[in-house]
Amino acid sequence: MTFKQLKEISAPHFYCFSLDKFFPKTLRNVLRKAAALAALVSFAFSFDSLPLYLGLADGLFFLFIFIYLTLSFLEFFYRSMINEGLQTRINEKLLGGEKNIDYALSSILFATSEIDVTLAFFETRVGIETLLRSGLDLAELKNFVYSERTPIVASSLNLPNDFVDLPSFASLVYEADKSLRAFLSKNSINKEEFIGAVNWVMNTENQKIHKDRFWSRENLGAIPSIGTSWSYGVSADLGKYGVSFDRLSNVSSLLIENGYRNREVTALENVLLRREEANVIIIDDSEDVVRDIVGRFLKKIRLGISLPAFEHKNIIELDWTSLTTSYKNKSELEAEILKILNQSISAGNIILYIRDLSGFVSSVKSLGVNLPSLISPYLSSKNLSVIASATNADFHFFIETTPSLLEKFERIVPDALGAEASVAVLLEQIPSIEKQYGLIFSFPSILSLTKTADRFISYGEMPGKALDMLIEITPWAIERNIEVLKENDVSVFVSEKTGIVTGDIKEKEAGKIEHLEELLHQRVVGQNEAVDSIAGAVRRARSGVGNPKRPLSSFLFIGPTGVGKTEVSKALAESFFGDEKKMIRFDMSEYNGPEAASQLIGDFAMNKSGLLASKVRDNPYSVLLLDEFEKAARDVLDLFLQILDEGVFTDALGRQVGCRNLIIIATSNAGSSFIWESIKQGKNLIQEKDKIINKIIEEKIFRPELINRFDGVILFHPLEKKELEDIARLELEKLRKRLSDQNIEFVINEEVINFLVEKGSDPEFGGRSVNRAIQDKIENLVARKIVSGETLPGSKIEIKKEELL
Amino acid sequence: MSEVYEKSPFLLAYIKWHYGRGLKELFAVFGNFLWFVSNFFSFKLLLKTLFYPWKRLGETYEGGLNLNAFASTLIVNGLMRAVGFCTKTLVMLVGLVSYVFLLIFSFFIFVIWVLAPIILLGSVALSATFFVI
């Protein structure tokens, strides 16, 4: 299709735009109503002069009638043209649905000039709306329009032959226009975000048109009819313990058009259509997901677009908590439950919703009521439909073990949704939030909100996590006087909330990450290879190149003791999470018995939560340090195999624990003798790395699949003299600082350093022996001098070699 | 069909629409409103449940030979059915009247639609006549 052809088929919409241009809509409406009123008034006045008096009032009456009718016909024409190409939920055979044109696109095409296609996006209401929703400011738009840019001509667009809507057109323009692309990417808006914003604007425009068509079947059909409640029964007891589902869940904002949860709702409808045993149990750990599905089903019924069998049906939620607390006696409770079920059947239009079925079963069990056998006959009857919910664990432990319940319910397991599908749910909520708070959301901010919620919130499921975050960020943004919420604001919000830095790498932080090696070296002496590969991995993770379905990074540190393995981990915690205390530390040599795994992930039989599970939950953003990893039991190693691979594990109580925000560091002394040997023989450790790893595998210390799961295996070599000197200097500097707080000047001299290096050359303890020598010798000596009064505040201490011997 | 309007001047496009597509659409809108009235007064459901008790209220007779209980159940249930019948009939009557009114109104609009040029020209002419005379 050529651009000209596209414009030609969009002609019906163009009549509306030209009409709006020369004769604005509001003016038309005011005039039409005024004409109607004036016609009525003049008609009344004309009666004064009966029988037949041809006067001014009569003349005016006919004039106003003319104006009114002309404007009305014009309005009909206008509305008919707008609706061309509109897709309706209910097929009304109403004309024009077969047209492949899109109103939002036409509004841009109308203003598009063939020599500068992009300009119309900056000059039309819909176009500007798409750019604002992409996260741009009005001032930036002007800058771009008046900047030196290369306009693109319409003929350069490669339009498809069948159907072009606004997003597909915008995508073609985006591809063709280099300056636009550069402008958007300068404002960190990528194609996905731009097209997403365009799509959103198009859908909003279409919703407006749908809403304006008060004469359409979809709008007329949504008006509740009178008299239905007289034909169906009322249920007094159900009224006491049952609440209409839409009073507890807001179904009005749900959009059926976006197709969200379509599979689940259709499955629900199909089961409920059955003649008997039309009962569904929806299994999901989040009650919100279940309510969302049931709500969408109810919304379809209310809109009259569900299957005819569900016409006039109502979903009533059984409030079993107040039911069970109202009765203290088994037989009374049983009688009440039966009464409610009987009344639901006789009412004839009720679908019963029971939240947390297993909770209901166990709560009435305390009064001795056997609910499964009590309600079983009702569940098999053809007059009652029940929708129930259960969590995965409850379903397996309570319902699967009760055949009388299990066989009566058809199972629906909702799909686990990722960030992408959740965007649609967030978009549903935006209009009401924007209206309530006067805050405007840009599309990239919503996208980033769902992505960060998915990645960084370890509790809960999607889309609930994202919705919670949306509710939290709104007052936060209002407090900071933010008018348009942008992607950057979301990053700031997340880092304030969690301490983890996400989103755009800011200048200061960029410097920090760029110079991570130097930062790490401020605390870690030597170990260049190790520091380089760690910094590389961290950069990969922060730049978004890393795999989001795994931990942030994971390393296996191999090397003799006291060479800086723990220090590197602390330094990493400090530079990545802002605090060296952001570290969970496990000594894995304590987890080598048969109980090890249950100590870490908990015990179902004893209803005990595991140490690893609870610590990771409490500190989801931290470094997980696993000392002496090789000493852990085999099943513990298997557990970490899964954590390293998927970034999550399931604890004994069936709850998922996310490890995707952890930097996992396992340390091991394995192969250190081999490392020592290589060093003694003067070999280069980097070249020996593969050999050392092979040796570890050969000795069956670690399995190859475990080693391969780590982002990097990092060898720490024994410290050399120069490095020991640096450590000694670093540690003495710390002591000097402490003493200067007491107004004592501590002089660091070569003699002391040489002494420490000599002490620190113990191959078994490495750098740690330097620390020990400082404690044992230097600090003791200084303490003695202070206590004896030899050194007073304001004086100087210099230690000589003789004093140390 | 949009080819019809293609490049046509506004008035020509309008006239084509008025007697083609516009007329068809008018009927569709009438159809929608008539459908709405029958839906709003739920004719089908009320007819089906015309003799059902009001809001399905009533007593269940426990059985056995208890003349008093039998009589009271009979009276209560009969009453409920009578109430149901009367209200539903009334509503259906109102619905029917609305339906007929809507039909008449639709016909009236249809006539105006078809005779639009005559009515418009006529009203201008009449108004002019009044002013002139």
From TrEMBL, chain A:
Q: Which InterPro entries match?
A: AAA+_ATPase, ATPase_AAA_core, Clp_ATPase_C, ClpA/B, ClpA_ClpB, P-loop_NTPase
Database matches in SUPFAM superfamilies: P-loop containing nucleoside triphosphate hydrolases
What is the superkingdom listed in this entry's lineage?
Bacteria
Q: Name one GO molecular function term.
A: ATP hydrolysis activity
A GO cellular component annotated for this chain's UniProt record is: cytoplasm
Please list the residue ranges annotated as the Clp ATPase C-terminal domain.
Answer: 719-805
Q: Where are the transmembrane segments?
A: 34-54, 60-78
Keywords on this record?
ATP-binding, Chaperone, Membrane, Nucleotide-binding, Transmembrane, Transmembrane helix
Instruction: Tell me which residues make up the AAA+ ATPase domain.
Output: 551-720
Annotated GO biological process? cellular response to heat
Protein name stated in the entry: Clp R domain-containing protein
Organism, per UniProt?
Answer: Candidatus Zambryskibacteria bacterium RIFCSPLOWO2_01_FULL_39_39
From TrEMBL, chain B:
The organism's place on the tree of life at top rank: Bacteria
List all membrane-crossing ranges: 26-47, 90-108, 114-132
Keywords, alphabetical: Membrane, Transmembrane, Transmembrane helix
UniProt protein name: Uncharacterized protein
